[in-house]
Amino acid sequence: MTDYFWYRVAKYIDSNLPENISLYTFDKNTYQLLLEGYQEEKVEKLTEHFSEFLNYPLNISGIPIYLKTRLGCAFYPEHGKYGEEIMQRSFVAMEKAREKGLSHLCYQESLTEKSKENFLLLGEVKEALEEGEFVLYYQPKYDLLTGKIFGVEGLIRWNHPQKGLMTPDKFIPEMENTDLINLLTYWVLERALIDYKDWQENGINISISINISTHNLHHYRFLNEVDRIMAKYATCSPKIELEITETDIMMENGILSKLLERGFSISIDDFGTGYSSLAYLKYLPVDIIKIDKSFIGNIVEDSSDKEIVKAVIQMGHALGKKVLAEGVETEGSLELLKEMGCDYIQGYYISRPVPKEKIYEIISLYS
Ligand code: C2E
Ligand code: CA
Ligand code: CA
Fold first, then answer.
1. Which of 39, 65, 283, 355 has its CA 20 to 30 A from that of 56?
2. CA nearest ligand 1 atom 28, residue
3. Distance between Cα 105 and ligand 2 center (Å)
4. Tens digits of per-residue pLDDT, 61-77?
5. Which residue ranges of the chain lie beneath pLDDT 70?
């Protein structure tokens, strides 16, 4: 879909809104409405009005286009004290509406009993960033040809004063629906650059990769912020790789080429879990394909996993890309992957993600 199409959709929605409701674009195909002074019953009525006008086809260049929409609502202060919390909860309601096949749904506690605790954490992120509670761990990447560590992947941890060291599954998914993920990614990039510089000064030449979320790629300030941070470390010409999932790469909006122009390399993360076809790889400006760990865990025993991985390695090489297997936990899988011609591996067999200081030790173990 083109930007023009989404622009027309936004225009159409905006022109049908009552005066005291403002429209914001969140992502290309996600919009936010700010309703001031509305009670729940009134919102019920309004959503009916929305569903009605959204059911009409949009006429673009003479072609009628039908929109499929879902609305999710959340209220201040019942559902959160912070903007991020309200946004997050409206997303939950929208997702639930989609699951249940409804046109709209208002947030209720019962929708998310499970992740309630995780939502509450959102309100603490900014302070945690200021207080230095986040830590970037690193997992080594091993070159099957040379037997050496050639790089590391930065993986975030939150050293929470009450909850202890938390892995990203406890907070990243919630953050990804809010602008907080941008702040976190900027923090991760800067942390990686500081560590890169430090390693370089100590004679350790390794590349660092960081994980990028879809919301980063679609945020209008992302490139500016990245440029601002990179400029501070230009003297050490850092080699930074960006890990982006297959689905996000397919949805990208031209930002990848701008990142490549800036000297970043790009790898496809969790390859095999999205919907892209192998043939599509040809068109993607990526250097490394990271095969998802779900194909690697049982590779020695599972013949179909083995065949899939073999095919990805062959296809990747035919297209001039390097292939990395994630989640290697045993010597047997390492040997098999080596035999198959896989370039790199990452996984508990080599090392779990560790604090920066431990990386020296691991590198010397493999040198
Ligand atoms: P990912 O990018 O696919 O990272 C790999 C995950 O697999 C890591 O989990 C790592 O600890 C785990 N792993 C590594 N080797 C093995 C193995 O041999 N066996 C098994 N079972 N697991 C292994 P972690 O650190 O909990 O991170 C989970 C996810 O959180 C990451 O998946 C990534 O999507 C996200 N994440 C982590 N750090 C960041 C970050 O700084 N920014 C963003 N946006 N996302 C992040
Ligand atoms: Ca990754
Ligand atoms: Ca991965």
1. 39
2. 168
3. 33
4. 777 777 777 888 898 88
5. 1-2, 111-117, 119, 275-279
